Structure formats: structure tokens, C-alpha cells
Amino acid sequence: MSTQANPTSSKRRLLLASDNGDQSLELASILRSVSEVDTVSTSDLPDAPAGHFAGIVVDINLRSAESVQRVRNKLSSEAYRAMPRLFVLADALHHGSMQAWALGATDTIARPFDAEGILQRIRAAFPDTHGFDETDRGKTLNRGVAAAHEVMVKIFNKLPAGVPLKFSDIVAAENKILKAIKHSSLREWLTAVGCHHTDTYRHCLFVTGFAVAFAQHLGMREDDQRRLTRAALLHDVGKAFLPVAILDKPGTLTEEEMSEVRKHPRLGYDALAASGGFPPEMLDVVLHHHEVLDGTGYPDGLRGDRISDIVRLTTIVDIYSALVEARAYRVPFTHAKAFAIMEQMKDKLDPHLLQAFRPVTLGAY
User: Fold this and answer.
1) Do 22 and 29 form a contact (C-beta atoms < 8 A)?
2) CATH number belonging to the domain at 134-362, selected among 1.10.3210.10, 2.40.110.10, 2.40.128.270, 3.30.70.100
3) Inter-CA distances, 262 with 250, 259, 310, 312, Å
4) What are the φ and ψ backbone dihedral angles of 152, each rounded to 5 degrees?
């Protein structure tokens, strides 16, 4: 089954890959209100799509190993690499979402369809052009990095000078950051922010990139992805109140300097709590991202179940980022070495989350 788009149309052009026959008719009808749509069965999905598409919508049975493998083989090719992918879920259950993200989904929608909601997702997920080329991807990546950098400036330059940080400052950046990593790649994000001259900025942006990629890999709902993005951006806000001489020291810190550094979670928490408007889970991450499961972390020595899931996740990406970043006093650890170090911390880190994080790290190289 196929329909041919008008090549002179100014609308988006989408490729709808479907194994669901008549069930896809409703979806195709919704899509046509904002897009030209070419519909093919997955068995007819071309190795390289003819013409320029803004993206691909995949409507298949994610419980069918045959359908999943067929789509995986096609979408893993170079021809589809840069194309945004919207997957249709039979329901909002976690398993289907996990499958979709494993196949490279940049967003998901679930039956039953909400037409207006789908159209909003289409406009957000796919550019309103004839294609999503490397220039589009580069612009999206640059906008995301610039938005994240602007948050860093507000944290480390303006906050110590008495300019309050607002929750709206973070919300304003999150869309651009999420979109940048969805439409480019974690590797490109790390390359773009890895050349930043300020170690503290670079670390926060690394953590943000890994956290967003991890959230997308886990198939988190969009709202949860946003929460994690905000938390990752802000996790080290307390370092804004530490002496620059300590933050930028090119060697090992003394005991006294380490004691100062360990104050940053509490300093950050107090600053945001005083500003008001920041959600509890963000304050939790700022205060507790150095807590570990065996109770040997700081500042509160939390143990086990007292450490929330969002903190456990942020702690993993925080430690990993620190290990693979270049520092003045050491070369970065390789992926394998960094992960081996973290696996030896089995009493400190959530083992299930750590193993779930492994595929994300592979995508960074």
C-alpha cells in the first residue's frame, strides 16, 4: 500500500511504515492535515528512501520479533541515520516504550489517538521542511548547546553576584537541549561541549548530555525526561559559591580544599530553596547527588531506599562523566576503564541502573 506525495508541496513529507493495515488509516488521516504522507509496509521499506522526508513514523507490532528485526535492519542504515523517528505504541506500557527507544525513537505516541496531541508532537518532532539534513541537525545541536551554556552563565556568573536563578530559566532551555540530542546524537553533543574551556561548565554539560540520552534510552515519558534534564543542568549549582582557585586547580586537592568542595550540595540547595519555585525532585538531586547506597556519601550519609531513583540515576551519569572527561591532572579514562571502575562500586551504585546505562555509554564513542 502506498500513496505518493506531491513533490512541489510546501508541507512536511513523512514516511509512514506500517504493518497494521486498516489501523493505520486513522493515523495517516491525522498526519495528512499537517504533512504529505507516503505509506509503505515494513516489508516494502526501501533501503534508502527516495526524495527528502522530514521524518519516519513507525506503526508496527513491537511484540513481533520479525517486524522489529525488519525495521531495525532498515533504520540502522546510513540512509535513515539522520531521520527523526516517531514510533506508535499499542498502549502507554513501559515495555513498548523501551522497545521503541531501543530502535532509535526520537519520540513516541500511543493509542488511542488524540488528534490534537499527535499534531503537536509532529510539529515538535519533525521540521517543517522537505528534509532534515545535516545543516538542520547542526543548527538544532548548536541551539541546544547555546541554551545549556546560557544556563551555566546564569549559574556560575550571575548567581554568585546576587542575581537569582529562576525555575523558568531552566524550563526555557530544556526543549532545545532535548531536541538537540534527539536529532543529532550523544556523540555530537559531547564533541560540541567537550571543547569548552571551563572545566565546571564542561562537566555540567557532559552530565546533562548523558542524563538526557539515558532517559531517552530508558523510554521515560517526556515529562520525566524534562525533570531529569533540569536536574542534570542544576546538579552542581552549589559550585557557583566555591572559590574559582579550587574549581580550576590543575592538580589534586588538599584535604582542606576537598572539605570546601563537599559543601557545594548544601550551598546549592540553600540557594535554590531561597529563590523558591524549584520542584522537590530538583532540590533532591542538587542536595544528594553525592549520596551512595552504602551510606558513605555526603552531605547526609543517606543509605539504600532513602536515595530516590532520580538521584541514583544522576549519580551514575555524574560519576561516569567525571571519569571520561579530560582533566588537567590526568587523561580521560576509556569507556571500558570507566565502566569497570563503576562496576567495582557495586555497594554504592544501583546495579540495575548501572547495567542499563552501559548501552548509552557505547553511543558516545
Assistant:
1) no
2) 1.10.3210.10
3) 18, 5, 20, 18
4) -60, -40
- 107-110 and 85-89 beta bridge pairing: parallel
pLDDT in tens, 147-159: 998 999 899 888 9
Distance CA 313, CA 243 (A): 28
Q: Is the peptide bond before 112 cis (omega within 30 degrees of 0)?
A: yes
For residue range 126-176, list pLDDT tens digits in order. Answer: 755 444 445 566 788 888 988 998 999 899 888 988 888 999 999 989 989
Q: Would you state the pLDDT for residue 195?
A: 64
Residues β-bridged to residue 247: none
In this predicted model, what pLDDT tens digit does every residue of 44-67 receive, in sequence order? 888 888 777 888 999 988 888 888
Q: Minimal CA–CA distance to 291: which of 322, 267, 253, 318?
A: 318
What cell numbers appear for 305 in the block?
531506599
- Ranking 29-33, 82-86, 185-189 by mean pLDDT, the lowest is 82-86
* Residue ranges covered by each domain of the chain: 12-125, 134-362
pTM above 0.70, yes or no: no
Instruction: Tell me how far CA of residue 247 lies from CA of 78, 166, 201, 241, 327, in angstroms.
Output: 42, 24, 11, 10, 12
Phi, psi torsion values for 145, nearest 5 degrees: -65, -40
Q: Which long-range contacts (CB under 8 A, 24 or more apart) does 17-22 make?
A: 17/41, 17/42, 17/45, 17/56, 17/57, 17/58, 17/59, 17/60, 17/71, 18/42, 18/58, 18/59, 18/60, 19/59, 19/60, 19/61, 19/64, 19/67, 20/59, 20/60, 20/61
Give CA–CA dist 118/287, Å, rounded. Answer: 37
∠ CA 298-152-254, rounded to 5°: 40
Sequence letter at residue 239: K
Question: How confident is the model at residue 365, as a pLDDT?
Answer: 62
CATH architecture of the domain covering 12-125: 3-Layer(aba) Sandwich (3.40)
Considering only the C-alpha atoms of the chain, give the largest distance between any 2 of them, rounded to a whole number of Å: 71
